[in-house]
Amino acid sequence: MAKSEGIPAPAVRRLSLYLRHLETTQARNHATVSSRELSRAVGVTDAQVRKDLAYFGQFGHPGIGYRVDELIARMRQILGADQVRRVILVGAGNLGRALMSYRGFRKKNFDLVAVFDNDATKIGLPTPELPGERIRSLDDLPRIVAEHDVRLAVIAVPAQAAQAVADQLAAAGVRGLLNFAPMILQTRPGITLSSVDLAVQLEQLAFQVNLGAEGAKISVDS
Amino acid sequence: MAKSEGIPAPAVRRLSLYLRHLETTQARNHATVSSRELSRAVGVTDAQVRKDLAYFGQFGHPGIGYRVDELIARMRQILGADQVRRVILVGAGNLGRALMSYRGFRKKNFDLVAVFDNDATKIGLPTPELPGERIRSLDDLPRIVAEHDVRLAVIAVPAQAAQAVADQLAAAGVRGLLNFAPMILQTRPGITLSSVDLAVQLEQLAFQVNLGAEGAKISVDS
Q: Which pTM was predicted?
């Protein structure tokens, strides 16, 4: 939702996709990869791959392509994925539970340290996904954020609660918010907000299918 | 993941955000809205708002701005949100259950008609979110898709099952796939694929927070 000049967001989005393909390639014991192969995996042109990677440094070796190990290491470094990043989750409903058990976070070196809810019937319940942890009251938020130096939070609460939760998280010192509530949130400067509206994703898809049916075309980069 | 020329994907993404703000404005009984107000709500410039809307037609009235009712009606029409669109869900795990109970889909005129899983212990279980329905075997897929003329499907299965499910959906006649599995899927021409990788969203956010901390900047449009 923020806007500014610099590295285009689609390039940053594709960086994650390149990394995922490189990890698959590494698992298959391939030592090098071409921009052509990356371009096919991610669905952009060769030239786009080279341009995207050039935002972050010079990686290619003429006649060889990209060295998989080297590129993975640099991309993880760029994405901060070479370090464990502590995350908290607010909202222990269906979506919150799905996020708790989502193994993709751990694979990317995210460490979910605590889950919060404001529902008194949920507070204190164990979280099987986080052994030894229990669902915490939002009253504990400032202390937990400070103790674990948490900079990232996932918001999985109903729309009407989301703005208040975002404000509490920002006040507690969290710097980045990943919001799943179907709601446009306001944040103060210094807070990065990324919103995932599941219905919007489906709406966009439906729109693209409609356009396709009518023979029109649309650019899709993620 | 597809790529082609035409309306830029960020403009299409913002269309959903404009629509959401317009619906809020309508609920507050405001009859008109300025590009300035829309630009603030969505986090882009005035000029960007006018350019985005111009892709889809001439909506503005000089000296008045945009008429909220008119713009909502046209945008719903453009997005296909003025008609009920039938959707099926494959995967009845934590994420699948969260998606079943997600009210945002209904609000946007999506009708979830059936839920599928390949786990024999889940098939036949009732789905409280879809009264009268039960979790179905994938064997029923072609029949249900044909009967309800389903064009959209949501994939919420583990990564290792996602490609096979995508292939089955395409073979059954589904045209648009919204994939939540952390996996790059291959699709044949004529199928529109949109992937939501929850870990990638968090990774991107972490990266933006890191860049922000170092004083660098990044464009974020969604």
A: 0.72
